[in-house]
Design a protein that fits this description.
Elements: H1 4-13, H2 27-44, H3 48-60, H4 67-74, H5 86-90, H6 96-105, H7 109-116, H8 120-129, H9 133-140, H10 152-169, H11 181-192, H12 196-199, E1 205-210, H13 217-229, E2 234-241, H14 244-257, H15 262-265, E3 267-269, E4 285-288, H16 300-307, H17 326-334, E5 346-352, H18 354-357, H19 364-374, E6 378-383, E7 396-402, E8 412-417, E9 423-429, E10 432-435, H20 438-450, E11 457-461, E12 466-473, E13 478-480, H21 484-490, H22 494-497, H23 507-529, H24 539-552, H25 559-568, E14 570-572, E15 594-599, H26 604-611, E16 620-621, E17 635-638, H27 642-645, H28 655-677
Length: 678
């Protein structure tokens, strides 16, 4: 086994042992924890005897607080004091289950917590009951996962390959767990591009945070890149992960990479949205790939409660629809930025197209975009090629957000179209058929740094993404007629039908009241049938005629019933007089109501006069429909429409070419029919 793919393939093949005894969806419950356990076993092997000797000596001397010395003996922030390892465990097949538990209990508490996240004790029981425990361990003992054979980077690739295969087999979503390495390298390059000089200083200390860190790929690659720029830089990693398996893989990997164990200790378990375990910290660099289109129903109560606190919490800008929590993660990350006076922060997050434009003016999504752009935090958005991810071929975008923009970028946003910067993969992995080469990563980063408009790059002022949505009304114009057809429509009006319904509990009283109601209904119908059948094109005139008819019939019409009559006996008529309210103002027609988006860069009145009045001269702007924040007419919205900004006109093919193709197709059809009938 020479490559990480060979080793991942061998480990994957062990799942064949589980067939017929385990459901397919449970294979990973066995394979992933044993992979982690085998890796740890190989890592600790060189110092295993030294740890055992040191532990025995310390215990013999009656010392109890031995953790620090055993860590030192192991060379890592974790250790194992059991006499067993994989080889010794296989020497005693009958006692394997008990000895394996003894081995796991021999780990230091911090590593035991990692293994327990796999619910491993239950897995041991199931394997032992199925008679498979020895076979599985024997196969895992054949794969060498020591650091001298498999680097930390390669081990990360093995974990990710296994996750991808398991989720692909189950048709699940591995994109929730990890991101292709070249995409992370691009995100990191964009995140750090402006800080090269700053990071080159002596005594540089930086914190990196991923709120949905999965198996930890983003954190480790970001740390590696910072240390490439400055080998003496001190980098501290922080993260949180809700999936127990990937949390365990991330934490165990960091324990191995960092002998101090500090980075691993900074990885928390649980939902970032509802239980933020780094709430008191702020970070220099934040990056994430939150799940796309995944609902946040499980976090709804906590998120909603925090949103009600406004900007005292993380979600004061607004809440997106419950079917997609991407913008919640972005808000959370912005809430963990350092203040500008403390040096500020830079954020890189990859999302699908939904957060760019989903949500109308005033919606949660639009208000979140508004908050980001009006605070001048959005630095750039990069459109990536499709088919980059293992689980989906959809379009994705990297957002770069910061509260310390360079002076020349203030008030402006850079958009980069990198959708055609890709190379084909030699072998597809699920939906991943493309990748971004190192040269293309550099090309995209250089475009970002250059900050110049071109074929792939557009630069806009912040307000160019905003608009003010105004409500445009047109007058209500109705005619009225007491015709048989319209009178019949009155029976469908709820206010009229309710006259013959009673809520009284007493049966006799209810029956009497309903009888009175039916009598009143009959009297109203008779009154209307007795009115002249002429067509009224003025509501006031018809209302006067109705009032006179009711007086003559000695009927007192309640306001709801009167409104029901007017509604049933009316029809829209452009030649009728405009209906007006008690103050003489024209009433709006709800069916003719329309909305227009006025760019924030334009005056609403001028836009309306130019674009609307020439076509609908009787229209007006509803000045009572205002924005909740600025109180001005219309509601402010923000969206980023990449297709509009990078649209390239492609002329249709010449008609002659299309006709030639049609003739060729017709000839092929005639030929094939001839072969069939020939």
């Amino acid at each position: 086994m020479r490559t990480h793919s060979d080793r991942a393939g061998f480990i994957w093949s062990i799942a064949e042992l589980l067939r017929d005894r385990f459901k397919r969806g449970k294979y990973q419950d066995v394979i992933l924890p044993f992979t982690v356990l085998r890796r740890i076993d190989c890592v600790l092997a060189p110092t295993k005897q030294e740890v055992l000797d040191r532990n025995a000596d310390l215990r013999q001397r009656g010392l109890e607080n031995v953790d620090a010395q055993l860590r030192h003996a192991a060379g890592f922030a974790f250790y194992n004091t059991s006499r067993y390892d994989f080889a010794r465990l296989l020497d005693d097949a009958p006692g394997l289950a008990a000895n394996l538990r003894n081995y796991i209990n021999g780990f230091s508490p911090n590593m035991r917590e990692v293994i327990e996240r796999f619910d491993f004790d239950n897995t041991i029981t199931k394997l032992d009951d199925a008679g498979l425990l020895f076979q599985v361990m024997e196969r895992f003992a054949q794969v060498e996962l020591g650091p001298e054979t498999v680097s930390n980077h390669e081990m990360g690739l093995i974990f990710e390959e296994l996750i991808r295969r398991f989720n692909e087999a189950l048709n699940e979503n591995p994109g929730e767990h990890f991101t292709p390495r070249e995409v992370i390298r691009l995100m990191t390059a964009l995140l750090l591009a402006h800080d090269q000089a700053m990071l080159a200083h002596d005594h540089v200390v930086r914190t990196v945070y991923d709120p949905c860190c999965g198996s930890g790929g983003m954190l480790t690659i970001a740390a590696e890149r910072i240390r490439e720029m400055n080998p003496e830089a001190e980098v501290h990693l922080f993260g949180q992960e809700v999936n127990p398996e990937t949390f365990a893989m991330c934490k165990s990997d960091l324990f191995i990479k960092d002998p101090t164990g500090h980075d691993a200790d900074n990885i928390a378990f649980g939902s970032t949205l509802s239980h933020d375990q780094h709430a008191t910290r702020r970070f220099d660099y934040l990056l994430a790939n939150p799940p796309y289109g995944k609902d946040w129903n499980q976090d709804q109560a906590a998120v909603t409660a925090e949103a009600e606190r406004g900007f005292a919490g993380r979600f004061g800008a607004g809440l997106p629809r419950k079917s997609d929590g991407q913008l919640l993660f972005l808000q959370h990350m912005l809430g963990r930025m350092k203040r500008p006076k403390d040096g500020g922060s830079r954020v890189a997050i990859i999302m699908n197209g939904s957060p760019l434009f989903t949500g109308d003016a005033g919606s949660g999504e639009s208000e979140i975009r508004r908050w980001i752009i009006e605070n001048d935090w959005l630095e750039a958005i990069v459109a990536l090629p499709e088919q980059l991810f293992y689980n989906t071929g959809i379009a994705t975008y990297v957002w770069i957000v910061t509260n310390r923009k360079a002076p020349e970028r203030r008030g402006r946003v850079q958009l980069i179209d990198a959708t055609d910067l890709w190379v084909p993969m030699r072998k597809s992995l699920g939906d991943k058929r493309r990748e971004i080469s190192d040269e293309q990563i550099k090309q995209i980063t250089d475009l970002h740094l250059a900050f110049e408009e071109g074929e792939r790059c557009r630069i806009f002022a912040n307000e160019e993404f905003g608009y003010r949505k105004i409500r445009v009304e047109r007058p209500l114009q109705l005619n009225f007629q007491a015709s048989a057809e319209r009178i019949e429509r009155l029976r469908e009006q709820s206010a009229f039908a309710n006259l013959a319904r009673s809520r009284r509990k007493d049966p006799e009283q209810r029956a009497a009241e309903e009888a009175d109601g039916r009598a009143l209904q009959a009297a109203i119908i008779a009154m209307l049938e007795g009115m002249p059948g002429e067509l009224f094109r003025d509501r006031d005139q018809f209302a006067a005629a109705l009032k006179a008819a009711a007086k003559q019939a000695q009927l007192k019409l309640a306001a709801p019933v009167r409104k029901a009559i007017l509604g049933a006996l009316s029809e829209r008529d452009e030649s009728a007089a405009v209906c007006r309210d008690s103050k003489g103002n024209p009433e709006p027609d709800p069916d003719l109501r329309d909305y227009e988006q006025v760019p924030l860069t334009e005056d609403v009145g001028e836009f309306f006069a130019r674009e609307m009045l020439p076509h609908v001269p009787d229209a007006w702007i509803d000045e009572g429909w205002t924005d909740k924040k600025d109180g001005r007419v219309g509601r402010v919205g923000y969206e980023v429409n990449f297709n509009r900004y990078f649209y390239r006109y492609q002329p249709p093919r010449p008609l002659e070419e299309i006709e030639a193709d049609i003739r060729a197709l017709q000839a092929d059809i005639v030929r094939m029919l001839g072969e069939i009938t020939g």
